[in-house]
Amino acid sequence: MDFWVVARFYGKADTALANVKLGELGAWLGRRNLSLGGIAGGFSRGFWRWQHKYLQPKKVGIAPFVQFTVGSMILFYALNYGKMKHHRNVKYHW
User: Transmembrane segments in this chain: where (predicted)?
Assistant: First the structure.
């Protein structure tokens, strides 16, 4: 049965980042596709891996909903940080 999996990279296999020596790091980074399409493809593969692991199994737990909630909390904290930093309670106002 041949089918295409969205979460998989079908290009030539390369050395994993964990197996790269420090001297080879520059060459390894040079082989990455840093174009807009390559970065978008990486994000797409990551998103589909997350989908297949957490949202699409038959018995879905609470993990994807907690991850979404925590991610939303972090995002909105970062967006509103500029407004909230003026309302800090500090002991000394110098």
Answer: 60-79
Amino acid, single-letter form, for residue 45: R
Q: Which of 9, 72, 69, 13 is nearest to 44 (CA)?
A: 9
Q: For residues 12-24, give the mean pLDDT.
A: 90
The mean pLDDT of the chain is 88
Residues 26-42 pLDDT 10s: 999 998 889 999 899 88
Residue 48's H or E segment, with its range, is helix 36-50
